[in-house]
Amino acid sequence: ELEVFVVRRRVTVRTRRWTTTAESSIDHPHPNILRMNIRIQPRGDTSREPVAPHGLLGQTFDRDGMPLFGRTDDYTRSADGRVIKTLAQGEGAIEGTAADYRLASPFQAVGWRFSRFNASATAARDAKALHHLSNAEALHRLSNTSLLLSGGLLQRVNLQGADVGSRALNVAPNEAACRRSCLSEARCVAYTFITSSNVRRPCWLKGRGYRLEANSATVSGVLRP
């Protein structure tokens, strides 16, 4: 059972248990830089599955509702236009290391550390055993690197994921207007405003479950815990 849909820049692959979407973008949070966004969603309740999902993405469906903050990179470009070399490999937010997920061949199903192929029952990962940062710890680390501005604003901080609200609210012309948009949306607990010019939708409202990352072209505010 396999369905494939192609709509403009988006490809969706759907099976009985999962939906995977890939879409190219040059928009938020890295304007005018081409990248590929990947989204994977279960079509049912993973907590009812005897074999818990795993892999770099699959392990995030670990059924505990706990957000994890591992090592991250600053993906912004330097002033002279050079591309920043990335170093983070999920440390603190994945089981094992990135090397444990390298496959000997493109379709290798067995023989690697976290393979679930042919398994009859496996437990989800234990997130409490990982050396990740809590949301409060992540905020504290950012404030210790001079990213915290007066008035409760986080300078050069992007709140990634957990977008809420309509697209009409994304066009706020400045940070203050973005803040008011967040206050007008019942689900909004925080927001990120893109300070660089020529961005069609600079204001992004956030519900609970966002993660923090450094980005020199953004400023963020947290209005509710």
From TrEMBL:
<dbReference type="GO" id="GO:0006508">
    <property type="term" value="P:proteolysis"/>
</dbReference>
<feature type="domain" description="Apple">
    <location>
        <begin position="157"/>
        <end position="206"/>
    </location>
</feature>
<keyword id="KW-0677">Repeat</keyword>
<protein>
    <recommendedName>
        <fullName>Apple domain-containing protein</fullName>
    </recommendedName>
</protein>
<dbReference type="GO" id="GO:0005576">
    <property type="term" value="C:extracellular region"/>
</dbReference>
<dbReference type="InterPro" id="IPR000177">
    <property type="entry name" value="Apple"/>
</dbReference>
<dbReference type="InterPro" id="IPR003609">
    <property type="entry name" value="Pan_app"/>
</dbReference>
<dbReference type="Pfam" id="PF14295">
    <property type="entry name" value="PAN_4"/>
</dbReference>
<keyword id="KW-1015">Disulfide bond</keyword>
